[in-house]
Amino acid sequence: MSLHVVELGPIPPPEGGVSRQIVAIKDRLTDLGIKCTLVATTRSDPEHRSADNVYPESPLALVSYLRESDADIFHLHLGGEITPRVLALALAVAKTAKRSILTMHSGGFPKAITRSSIFRRKFTASILKKFDHLIGVSDDISDALRDLGIPREQVETIPPYALYLPDPDIQPDDELSAFLRSRSPILVAVGALETEYAPIEQIAAVKELAEEFANIGLVIAGDGSIREKVVESIADAGLSGSVYLAGNVSHDVSLHLLQRANVSLRTTLYDGDAISVRESLFLGTPVLATRVGTRPVGAHFIDELTPNSIAQGVRSILGQPRSEKRKTGSDLSQIERVVDLYLKVTGS
Fold this sequence. Notes:
Elements: E1 4-9, H1 17-31, E2 35-40, H2 59-68, E3 73-78, H3 84-96, E4 100-104, H4 109-114, H5 118-128, E5 133-136, H6 139-147, E6 155-157, H7 174-182, E7 186-190, H8 199-209, E8 217-221, H9 227-236, E9 243-247, H10 251-260, E10 263-266, H11 275-283, E11 287-290, E12 300-302, H12 307-318, H13 333-346
Parallel strand pairs: 1-2, 1-3, 3-4, 4-5, 5-6, 7-8, 7-10, 8-9, 10-11, 11-12
Helix pairs in contact: 1-13, 2-3, 8-9, 8-12
């Protein structure tokens, strides 16, 4: 099929929900014989760059690439805070594309845009309306886009997940594997060392739980700006042997972590449709989450983001019969919906 799609967004490493969807889309398009190019819109470590991808060194270089590209579709993925700089990127993509699609991954977008000034709302809407189609990864995000005056038929909700079993040939490194073998029960949090992911509260919860579960372990996958504060919290709590900061790990390693966990934690201040929640449930691992963003059926909830609430939630889950872990299967249905949208907007 003579179609060329450019995916613009964060490219792993590091791993994250947005970057995982981008890679899953490329993999599916490649399987179908459709050309797909990944273009990084965030900084990445030069040592881990792939020759197959494009890594513009400046905003000007990115715009130059967009102008020269022969792609049939530009698909921009936005997460995090939607700043004026991000909106400028969106405008550049929409104006240079033959056909353009934007996926809004930001779980904080609905609340942020509601609190924005009238000017900011109109300015944001004027840019987003230039895209041929908008995707919200949750109904809340899609509703927020429509509330800006974007026509209903131009907006669609497509959760951003592709669900697989972990690759048995890719395993956690020896140090992390040793930690997993030495601790039980195991809690796993896949996210980032940022305030909104509540690593400090998770550590405090583990300190409380250690009184009952002496051998408990917590693995936090992901890095971030409050790493030093997190390390201090671990030391102050006397949990150096009980909490493992795995840093940025590959997607397959994160899947192994979620599969081995007794409880997967998604205790965030805000969220979109967190892929780690869906991956955990798909793998047969119970999830403890805050009631924010989109949470699929099967998750366990806490109403307050406090150490005590997290500890109580973990106790409740551990007190229930264990479910069997999944051994076969995959779910690419949402990626197929994105591919179908590409075919629709190009008339293919």
